[in-house]
């Protein structure tokens, strides 16, 4: 089902098929198509990567994407919910430290009735890193029973890092449930105090809180070996 | 020579607000002390200052603990030195299970004491045995720290942490507050199980029945306005029970 070149990776999941795909080396472009009633679970490790992913979901298709973005990179995720009842779930963890610059852009279009999109983006920046998240949800005027949500939560782990979040909701239809939120902040001082009052040193407490925060997304990976490998890589790359 | 724990003229503030205003207290090893006082008199503040909460700024006085200058130590150094506070409002830590948290905490103490880390099997055994004493199920140990626990369950978890970490100076801040009769019994179990000649307790509570029946203190201190205004034995509890704190306000 997969064609792979340096420039372009093409993934087609045929009608009613169920597939799991793990991508660890990304081409510049990834094109995914999930056929009628088909289901794809897609895990992507984007380490210092630049990639544009385009996904098309036919009627009744289900697509679950978990992306781990580490280091300097530029990622774009565009989903076209083209068929009625398509469900797209896209979760992202990003982490950048030192002088890394990471940008993430998502663009979900509900082009059919009864389509559902769910996005949970969690990130952390440390050192002098700059991270940005821009999330667009587009719901055209004539679409019905649309359900979309986008949540972004991120941690600033140093004084000199920056995280910018720009949600862009373009909702032209009436019959819509659409929730979104973004919260960027520091580690919770009360939690840090509590942990240190039990004996953990400050850096250990910070590391534990940060990985717990990010692992909420990675916990969704059903392959246990893959999950613990990616959790370990995240912990290593966060620079704590 | 100073006492095991010697607090002298301690003053502390938060922002511009002075809370502790020259508080002194002398405490020996193996003793159980009760701190009483009206709401806002500074009991929790004293507890947190002893633990090193960065929220409070110490503006004067000294604290000597086991011969060392306590105020010069970091929060974690104090913890590893044996100070433990059961929090009045324990914080929730999503994503970190109590089992993981206790493993980190115990090993931090062991490293500080120059011991090797405890192996996983011995650790789990220790945790489970002590959990039983406080009616804590194995399932609860796998849940994230304090997340979704009732008030009573949180207090039991604080007790469990105390039992696992075996500190030698334990501060219990309103361990019994807001609990029903049965939960109060479990809350008091921590002191009953852990009391001994090597361990000192500060118990903060308004519940005289609880103090009399379960804590059985050696000494009682009354705090008013950020100072200790009376030191004595259980007769001070009797007096508070009868007359409240009115007499002590005059002395403050
Ligand atoms: N973090 C804080 N910020 C502002 N005021 C505080 C803070 N902590 C304590 N206080 C104030 O200090 C006083 C003493 O509080 P506390 O130590 O909690 O008293 P107690 O535990 O004896 O009821 C109160 O007036 C309280 O409002
Ligand atoms: Mg209090």
Quaternary status of these chains? heterodimer
Based on secondary structure, the structural category of chain B is alpha/beta
Which range does the strand content of chain B fall in?
A: 25-35%
Low-pLDDT ranges of chain B: none
CATH class of chain B: Alpha Beta
Low-pLDDT segments, ≥5 res of chain A: none
What is the element string of chain A, with H for helices and E for strands? EEEEEEEEEEEEEEEHHH
- Number of DSSP strand runs of chain B: 12
Chart the SSEs and their pairings.
The complex is a heterodimer of chains A (240) and B (252).
Chain A: E1 2-4, E2 8-13, E3 18-23, E4 29-34, E5 39-47, E6 50-57, E7 62-70, E8 73-81, E9 87-96, E10 101-110, E11 116-125, E12 130-139, E13 146-156, E14 162-171, E15 176-185, H1 189-197, H2 202-218, H3 224-237
Parallel strand pairs in A: 2-4, 3-5, 4-6, 5-7, 6-8, 7-9, 8-10, 9-11, 10-12, 11-13, 12-14, 13-15
Antiparallel strand pairs in A: 1-2
Helix pairs in contact in A: 1-2, 2-3
Chain B: E1 5-14, E2 17-27, E3 32-36, H1 43-51, E4 57-65, E5 68-69, H2 75-80, E6 83-86, E7 93-97, H3 98-112, H4 120-133, H5 138-141, E8 144-145, H6 151-165, E9 169-173, H7 181-194, E10 200-204, H8 208-215, E11 219-224, E12 227-232, H9 235-243, H10 246-251
Parallel strand pairs in B: 3-10, 3-11, 6-9, 9-10
Antiparallel strand pairs in B: 1-2, 1-4, 4-5, 7-8, 11-12
Helix pairs in contact in B: 4-6, 6-7
The structure holds adenosine-5'-diphosphate and magnesium ion.
């Amino acid at each position: 089902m997969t064609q792979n070149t340096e420039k372009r990776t093409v993934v087609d999941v045929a009608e009613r098929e169920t597939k799991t795909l793990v991508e660890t080396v990304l081409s510049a472009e990834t094109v995914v198509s999930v056929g009628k009633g088909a289901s794809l679970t897609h895990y992507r490790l984007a380490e210092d990567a630049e990639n544009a992913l385009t996904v098309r979901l036919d009627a009744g298709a289900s697509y679950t994407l978990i992306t781990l973005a580490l280091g300097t990179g530029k990622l774009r995720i565009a989903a076209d919910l083209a068929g009625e009842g398509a469900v797209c779930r896209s979760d992202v963890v990003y982490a950048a430290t030192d002088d890394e610059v990471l940008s993430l852009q998502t663009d979900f279009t509900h082009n059919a009735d009864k389509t559902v999109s769910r996005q949970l983006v969690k990130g952390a920046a440390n050192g002098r890193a700059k991270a940005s998240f821009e999330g667009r949800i587009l719901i055209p005027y004539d679409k019905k029973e649309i359900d979309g949500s986008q949540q972004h939560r991120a941690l600033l782990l140093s004084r000199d890092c920056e995280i910018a979040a720009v949600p862009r909701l373009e909702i032209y239809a009436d019959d819509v449930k659409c929730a979104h939120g973004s919260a960027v902040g520091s580690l919770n001082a009360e939690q840090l105090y509590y942990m240190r009052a039990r004996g953990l040193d400050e850096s250990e407490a910070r590391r534990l809180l940060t990985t717990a925060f990010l692992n909420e997304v990675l916990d969704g990976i059903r392959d246990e070996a893959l999950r613990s490998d990616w959790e370990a890589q995240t912990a290593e790359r966060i620079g704590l | 020579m100073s006492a095991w724990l010697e607090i002298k003229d301690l003053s502390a503030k938060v922002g511009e607000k002075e809370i502790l205003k020259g508080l002194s207290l002398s405490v020996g090893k193996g003793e159980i002390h009760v701190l009483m006082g009206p709401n806002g008199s500074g009991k929790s503040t004293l507890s947190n200052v002893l633990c090193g909460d960065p929220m409070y700024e110490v503006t004067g006085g000294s604290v000597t603990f086991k011969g060392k200058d306590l105020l010069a130590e970091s929060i974690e150094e104090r913890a590893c030195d044996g100070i433990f506070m059961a929090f009045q409002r324990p914080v929730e830590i999503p994503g970190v299970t109590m089992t993981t948290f206790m493993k980190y905490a115990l090993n931090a103490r062991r490293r500080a004491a120059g011991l090797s880390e405890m192996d996983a099997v011995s650790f789990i055994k220790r945790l489970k045995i002590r959990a039983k004493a406080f009616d804590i199920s194995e399932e609860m140990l796998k849940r994230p720290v304090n997340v979704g626990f009732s008030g009573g369950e949180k207090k039991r978890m604080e007790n469990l942490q105390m039992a696992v970490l075996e500190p030698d100076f334990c501060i219990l801040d309103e361990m019994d507050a807001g609990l029903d009769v049965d939960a109060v019994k479990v809350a008091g179990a921590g002191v009953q199980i852990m009391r001994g000649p090597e361990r000192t307790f500060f118990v903060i509570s308004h519940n005289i029945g609880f103090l009399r029946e379960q804590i059985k203190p050696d000494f009682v201190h009354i705090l008013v306005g950020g100072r200790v205004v009376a030191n004595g034995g259980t007769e001070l509890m009797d007096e508070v029970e009868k007359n409240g704190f009115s007499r002590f306000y005059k002395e403050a």
